[in-house]
């Protein structure tokens, strides 16, 4: 009677091992995506600064980067 219990335990251990591998894979994906988001955020900020400087040169008005976006 101990064989079925041993089989159940082995199956559970296998499932846990697979779930742990999946969690590790997902964690790697999230870490990579966070790096990409950070890089894109920096690039957008630089573009906003450049555009604001260009607009300020053209019109001499308020710098757009200092204004909140319209949805706020």
- The total count of strands amounts to 0
Helix content, binned percent: over 70%
Helix-strand pattern: H
Main sheet attributes: strand count, strand direction, barrel closure: none
Average pLDDT confidence is: 88
Beta fraction of the residues?
under 5%
Between the first and last Cα atoms, what is the distance in angstroms?
66 Å
In DSSP terms (H or I, runs of 4 or more residues), the helix count works out at 1
Q: What is the assembly state of the chains in this entry?
A: single chain
Structural shape: rod-shaped
Structural class: mainly alpha
Computed over alpha carbons, the radius of gyration is 26 Å
- Unreliable spans: none
Overall description:
This protein has one helix at 2-59. It has 72 residues and is mainly alpha-helical. It has one helix and no strands. The mean pLDDT is 88. The chain is rod-shaped.
Topology overview:
Layout: H1 2-59
């Amino acid at each position: 009677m101990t064989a079925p219990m041993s089989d159940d335990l082995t199956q559970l251990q296998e499932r846990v091992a697979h779930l742990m591998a999946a969690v590790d894979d997902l964690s790697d994906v999230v870490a990579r995506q966070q790096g990409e988001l950070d890089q894109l955020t920096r690039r957008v900020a630089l573009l906003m600064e450049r555009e604001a400087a260009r607009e300020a040169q053209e019109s001499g008005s308020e710098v757009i980067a200092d204004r909140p976006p319209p949805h706020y």
